[in-house]
Design goal:
8 helices; alpha+beta; 3 domains
């Protein structure tokens, strides 16, 4: 009987085991486990060859797992259970660090996060050609010697405001990146257009690893959103779909989702600042649900307060009849 099976209660069903790893220079070993059953999340760790059950949290509904290329990407739990599970996870990380002397990858990432030296509202930068720039790839890794065909964007060294992207030695300003003329000048097919029922607006459905120009516009826009703290995560073009909202031949915003057998998972929703106050976010979500979503129900992953307001305004977060269910994701833990 495995350690996971020993922790199951009578008539309890295991949904997924999330292994907790110690990542070393050459390979990794399992030092812990988070079991997600149909009714609990159970945290345990291994020390001196023995397993210790650290704690558990009850779940109000059955969680579900998402895999990418056969590897566990995340486990999604009901939003109502998020606070209790996150507190348990935080206490668990502290315990494992104390027992093993290792550091959580989450702690390292938190320590490495960067805040701009200058408030963007007070910075005097105004153009891409400034010699005070940062060059980053889509994972926000700094550098200047990226491969020629690799996507990277440039931002102000002081305030981190993004001004455009470079690829194949060519730069594209934000005005160019968000221009419909430029997007359709690449390998974008008109079959990707989604009719939203208005004369001045339409949407572009971008599939994973689809046309490069649309991908680049989405990557830049998602990083702009994440730096404004209005988008929880950034666009993952290798497995997420996206819907770009185009108004008057300019990209005004986007949303992303990833398919799942239980229903699509809506991941990001962002409208550029200059286009807000016109109901575009509500139109975008409604257009996606009515024309692209292939399920009666979908999941909204960690929506921001603004995202919740949008979904509520169109009746999607109505707990009785609305099609959306709010969830939060937990990703595999690692120590090093």
């Amino acid at each position: 009987m495995s350690s996971a099976e020993r922790m199951l209660e009578e008539e309890e069903t295991l949904v997924v085991e999330m292994e907790v790893e110690h990542r070393r220079q050459f390979g990794s070993v399992q030092i812990g486990s988070v079991l997600f059953t149909d009714r609990r999340a159970v945290f345990s760790y291994q020390s001196n060859g023995a397993w210790t059950q650290f704690g558990e949290a009850d779940l109000s509904a059955e969680p579900f797992a998402q895999y990418v290329d056969g590897e566990l990407r995340a486990v999604f739990i009901p939003a109502t259970d998020n606070d209790a599970v996150l507190q348990l996870q935080s206490d668990y990380i502290e315990e494992v660090e104390s027992v093993t002397g290792l550091s959580s990858a989450m702690s390292v990432l938190g320590d490495a996060s960067r805040d701009p030296p200058v408030d963007p509202a007070e910075c005097s930068c105004d153009r891409m050609a400034s010699n005070k720039v940062l060059v980053e790839n889509e994972n926000m890794e700094l550098g200047e010697d990226f491969e020629e065909g690799e996507f990277h964007f440039v931002s102000c060294e002081d305030c981190f405001r993004i001004y455009g992207r470079y690829r194949h030695g060519k730069k594209a300003s934000l005005n160019k990146l968000f221009s419909a003329d430029w997007l359709f000048g690449g390998d974008l097919s008109y079959e990707s257009i989604v009719d939203l029922g208005t004369d001045d607006a339409y949407a572009i459905h971008h599939t994973p690893s689809g046309p490069v120009r649309v991908q680049d516009a989405l990557l830049v826009l998602s990083h702009i959103g994440s730096r404004s703290e209005e988008v929880v995560s950034t666009y993952k073009h290798d497995y997420q779909h996206a819907l770009c909202y185009v108004l008057d031949d300019t990209v005004a915003g986007y949303l992303t989702w990833e398919p799942h057998e239980r229903g699509p998972i809506l991941s990001q929703l962002y409208i550029r600042e200059e286009y807000r106050g016109q109901g575009l976010a509500a139109d975008l979500v409604s257009g996606w649900y009515e024309n692209v979503c292939d399920s009666e129900h979908y999941f909204a992953d960690e929506p921001t307060s603004g995202g919740k307001a949008v979904l509520s305004s169109i009746g999607h977060l109505d707990g009785v009849s609305g099609p959306a269910r709010e969830v939060h994701n937990l990703t595999p833990l690692a120590f090093g």
